[in-house]
User: Fold this.
Amino acid sequence: MTHKTGLIDRRSVLAGAGAVIASPAVVRAQAKTPKIAMMLPRSGFFAQAGQSCYRGALASTKVLADLGYNVDIIHIDTESSNDVSRTQAEKAINDGANCLIGAFESGNTLAIAQVAEQRKTPLICNIASAPQLTGQGYQYLVRNFMTGPGLVTQGLKLITEVAKTANLEFKTAVFLHANDTFGTAQSQAMDKIFPTLNMPFKIVESIAYDPKAQDLSVEVTKVRGINPDLLLIVTRAGDAIKLTRDMVRQKFEPKAIMSPGSPGLYDEEFFQAVGPYADYYIYNIPWFNVKSQMTQALEASFKTANPKHRFDLDGFNSGFTFEALLVAADAFKRAGSADGATLMKAIKETNIKDHVMIGGPIAFNDKGDNPNILSASVQNIGQKPVVVYPGDVAVTKPVLPFPSWQGRK
Amino acid sequence: MSLSLYAEVLIQGVLTGLVYGLMALGLSVIFGVVRVVNFAHGEFAVLAMYCAFVLFGLAGVDPIAASLPLAAVFFAVGYLMQRAIVQPFVTRPQHEQFILLVGVSLVITNGLLLAFGPESKHVDLSYSFDSYTLGGVLIDKTRVYGATAALVATAAVFAFFRYTMTGTAIRAAADNLTGAAVVGLDVKRLYAISFGLGLACVGAAGAIMMALTDMTPLLAPSLTLLAFTIVIVGGLGSMTGALAGGLLIGATEALASVIVSPAIKSMVSFGLLVLVLALRPQGLFGKAEA
Assistant:
C-alpha cells in the first residue's frame, strides 16, 4: 500500500525546479506577442537622437496594430554608454525580451551585439553605420541602415546628380568636418572613396575643426580665402549653428553647401538657433518617403503620440526605428515562435516591399545588411527638410545655386 | 589667402583676446592680492553666462549690457565668498585651497547641470549675424561690441587700482602685507574687495561671452584652463600681463588656425605657455621671485 503523505518528494521538487528554471524560455518561445527591447540612448551624449528614435517607437505601436501586428515594447535607456548598453541588454533578455532593437550609435550597438550573440537573441540595428558591426560574422544581428562608406559613396554621387538638375557645375570644393569620431570616420571614408568615383570637382582643402570650439570664424575665413564652388560639411547641430553664424557674418556664399551624409542640419536645435539661415543646405542621407502610405500613417500616429514635435525633423530617426519594429513583428508572425534561432531565421528571410524609408524592399544580405536602402538629397526649404532628388521621391526641385544670406526672413 | 584675410583673422583674434583678457584679469587680481588661485574661475564665468542667458530670456536684456549689473552682483558674491569661505584658507597650505575651490567649481557645474541640463544654450541678438566692412576687411559686429565692453571694464579696473584710495591700499597690501597691516589697513576687507573685483571681472567677461558663443556647464574647465594659460603667459599676479596675455593668446590662436590648421590652435597656445615657462618662468610681465 502506498501511503501518500501530501509531502512533495525529491523528484517532484527537482522536476518543479527544472520547470521553473526553464519556464521563461518556454514562455518566450510560446509568446503570442513578441516582447521587444527598444534600446536607445535617451540620455547622455546622444540623447537628442535617442529621444527622437523613442518618439518614433511611441508612434509605431498604433501603425503596427493597424497592420495586424501586436508588439510589447520595453523601453530601455542605454545612457549613450557601451557598458550600460551591455548590462541593459543582459537584463532585457533575462526579463523575457525575444528581440532587441537599437541602438543609434555604433559603439553601443556593438556592445549589445556581443550579448545578443551569446544569448542567441536577435538584434535588429535601427541606426548605426560602423562597417565592423556586420563585418564580424555575428549570426544574431541584422542592420536596416547604411554603412559609413555606403553613406559617403551615395552622398557623393548625389552631389553631382542634384547639381545637374540645376545645370550647376562645381570645379572646386572644400571639405570642412568636425574632428570627433563621426567626423573623422567620414573624413577617412571620403579620402578612400572620393578618388574612386571620378567626381567632376577637386577637393582643394580638407579642414578639420574642434566641434567644441567657441566659434568657427577662423575656419570660415580660411574657406573664404580658398573661395570654393562647393562647401562640403560634416557637422552635428551645435557646430552647424556656429558655422552658419560665421558664414552669414562673413557673407560667404558658395554655389552650394552640401553634406555627403551627416546629422545636425535637420535638428530642431539648428532650426531654432539660426531660423531662416537654416534654409538651402542640402544633405544626402537615407530619408523617409513622404509618398509612401505607410509613412503617412506613421506621420499621423506620430502627431498624436508626440504633439509637440515635428515629424519632418524626427522622421529619419522615427522611420528607421519603426522599420526595425516592423521587421521584428513581421518575422515573429511568419516564424510563429519567439525562439531565438527560429525568429532570427525568419528575420533573415525578411522581404518587406511597403515600408517607410526610401529604397527597395527591406531584405538582408549574408552579412546582415540591407543593401536596398537609398540616400536622397534633402534640402531645408521654408525651415523644413524637403526631398529634392531623386525625382520619383522628390517633393520639389532643388534651390540652387545657394541663395544669398541677405534679405532672408 | 590675401593680406586682408590675414588682417581679418588677426583683428578677430585681438577682439576675442580682449574678452579673454578681462576674464583672466579677474584671476590675476585674486592671485596678485589674496595669493589664492581661483580654481573655480571658469565655473564662475559659465555661471555669469547662464545669468546673462536668464536675463535675456526673462527681460530681453542684451548680454553685453547685462555685463555691468552682473559685474556688481558678482562683486557682492565674491566679497561675501571671500569673507565666509576663502578667508579661513588664506593662510592654509595651497593644496587645501585647491580642494576648497575645486569643491566650489563642482558645486557650480553640477548645480547648472541640474538646473539647465547639458544642452548648449545661446542667445539670438538682433545683430548676431551682422558685420562691419572696413576696406575689404569684415569685422563681426558682436565681437566689436563685446571687445569694447571688455576694454571699458578693464580700463575701469586699472583706474580703480591707480586712482582710488582703496585701490592704492590693495596694491600696498599686495606688495607688502606686513607693512600694510602695520599702518592699520584692514587687510581682510581689502582681500574681500579684491576677491569681489576678481569675480566682477569674470562676471562681466562671462556675460559678454554669452553674446559671442554658445555655452554648456561643461565649458567651464576649458575656460579655467584658458584663464590659467593667459595669466601664466602674461605673468601671474600682473594685471598688465593678464591683458597682454589675453591679446597674445587670442591673436596667436587665430593666426595659427589660418596658417597651420584650426584643429591645432589649442596646441599652439599651450606651446606658447611651455615656451614662456622655459624662457621666462615669471611670465612676460611678472616679477621674478627674489
Observations:
- Chain A touches chain B through 33 residues (CB under 8 Å).
- The CA atoms of residues 309 and 321 of chain A lie 16 Å apart.
- Confidence is low (pLDDT under 50) at residues 1-7 of chain A.
